[in-house]
Amino acid sequence: MTAAAAPGGLAIETHRLSKHFGQRAAVDGIDLAVPRGSVYGFLGPNGSGKTTTIRVLLGLAAADHGDIRVLGREMPRELAGVLPEVGALVEGPAFYPFLSGAANLSRLDTADRHASPASRRRRVGEALERVGLAHAAGKKVHAYSLGMKQRLGIANALLRPRELLVLDEPSNGLDPQGTREVRHLVRSLTEGGATVFVSSHLLAEVEQMCTHVGVMSAGRLVAQGTLNELRAAGRTRVQVLTPDAGTASRVLAGLGLEPGLPEGSGARPAEALVWAELARPGVEPETIVAALVAGGVRVRGFSVERSSLEERFVSLTGEGFDVVG
Amino acid sequence: MASELTVLFRRLRTWAMLLALAAIPILIAAAVKLTSRPATPGRGPLFLDRITQNGLFVAVTALVVSVPLFLPLTVGVVAGDTIAGEASLGTLRYLLLAPAGRVRLLLVKYTGAVVFCAAATATVTTAGALAGVALFPVGPVTLLSGDTIDVGESVVRSLLIAAYITVSLLGLSAIGLMISTFTDVPVGAMAATVVLSVVSQVLDNLPQLDWLHPWLFSHYWLGFADLLRQPISWTSFGDNALLQAGYIAVCGAVAYGKFSTKDVLS
């Protein structure tokens, strides 16, 4: 729809974006790059600045420093032109409890000057249908469950065809069934060519539906890239279970690896676990096994351990429940 | 705009307030009717003694009673709720994301409050007229200037008074809107608005501060007696309108200044 919609361009781009609340930096110089057509998982523990970033991206709050471009246009200067192309769910759904679900959507649609009043009823109906709320359209929102409100919030983001969807914790409060539906929905949206920016603190969710990931920690963007890049950035190590720890270490060192000290032994006291980071290109696990066997090492166990995305996530954001405050 | 009014008038609270306002003239009429003792002229609210002779005075008396507290109270609730109410529900961020436009939202919200002012005074006037017609004889009205006007003319005068009071409340609405942009707590904005209206009236009664009086937004609130003279004296109407316009301009500017750059974090 926009002239700047060059394929391969960026749907969201920020440069050294910062937002302070008093002395504390909620968002500290982040450079987001969200490719068009991607499903971008914006991952980070609670309080890491995800929602604040989204608020600033959408012009709800003003940035202290940095530039923002959304759909190729500068924000918040061109806000009025950009926002109609953006569907958003920010920090949970919010509605007038004394109005019905359909009336709430109509109300928010009216607030958009560019939305056609003629097709309003149809669009509201379709959006409700899409999130499975058609049967509850006439019910007042105060009678809705948390999950229903969440669905209604997503319906609001889908009232018009959008180029970009910003969904802040879309699966919050949804049952497993609803979470699956959100995944399907996100997939169907990208098939229609939209870019989806999903924030989440749930790694599994991001792993299942995203193509790209950005990881926030304490207001900083500590990693960004495709899901595979982020996985690959994790370390892989090989472990050898053998009674000949010394020989094994020498063989590994001969391959250019740096074997760690033999760790706590296996089942029998004579056995030890020798490990090494698989950090050299060209040295594949099978080469190592062949070299070990050729070196006369009695290999009783051999394993390749790839650090999971979860370990990667924890190593990036720190462990524990401390909310950065 | 239509949507704004729908939201306002689909709220139970709005109707409860209008019902309470309608109850005022009805209570007054019933109380006067049930007490056999004729009201002593000069005691009680203005025009109370005239009700038994002419039911048309019920509406005017009810307006006199409502202006100092009841009307500002309800207007304070609606005006204080404008922005802060949306903020506390969280709907403010979705309205802005729609995008509603911040200036447009302020204008629509203020218009909504103005419509409520008109609805509130109209409610008191209508309920008063109906109660008066139902319980008391109706006839030509003797004005403050001693002239007599017929029933039709007196209805026009009642509507003029209602219009005067609506205009009187516009400044207060603007104050409510302004306060509402400073907080996410609607009750706080409502209370502050109502308190300000009381403070303004108290200050207006301190003779030591008479230099300040013409600047108080409540100064002309009870000035509608001029509309009950023959010929009508429009001076207080004009002064009042000018003063209220000043409040709208100042508070509107402050509200705009605050809201157009506000971080919406609720």
From TrEMBL, chain A:
PROSITE patterns, per database record: ABC_TRANSPORTER_1, ABC_TRANSPORTER_2
Domain ABC transporter: 12-243
GO MF terms, alphabetically ordered: ATP binding; ATP hydrolysis activity
Parts forming coiled coils: none
SUPFAM superfamilies in the record: P-loop containing nucleoside triphosphate hydrolases (SSF52540)
Keyword set, alphabetical order: ATP-binding, Nucleotide-binding, Transport
One Pfam family recorded for the sequence: ABC_tran
Similarity-based family: Belongs to the ABC transporter superfamily.
Protein name: ABC transporter ATP-binding protein
Organism: Arthrobacter cavernae
Phylogenetic placement of the source organism: Bacteria, Bacillati, Actinomycetota, Actinomycetes, Micrococcales
UniProtKB/TrEMBL annotation, chain B:
Recorded superkingdom: Bacteria
Any Pfam family hit: ABC2_membrane_4
TM ranges: 15-35, 56-79, 91-107, 114-138, 158-178
Keyword Transmembrane helix: yes
Ranges in coiled-coil conformation: none
Keyword tags: Membrane, Transmembrane, Transmembrane helix
Protein name: ABC transporter permease
Organism: Arthrobacter cavernae
Lineage, top ranks: Bacteria, Bacillati, Actinomycetota, Actinomycetes, Micrococcales
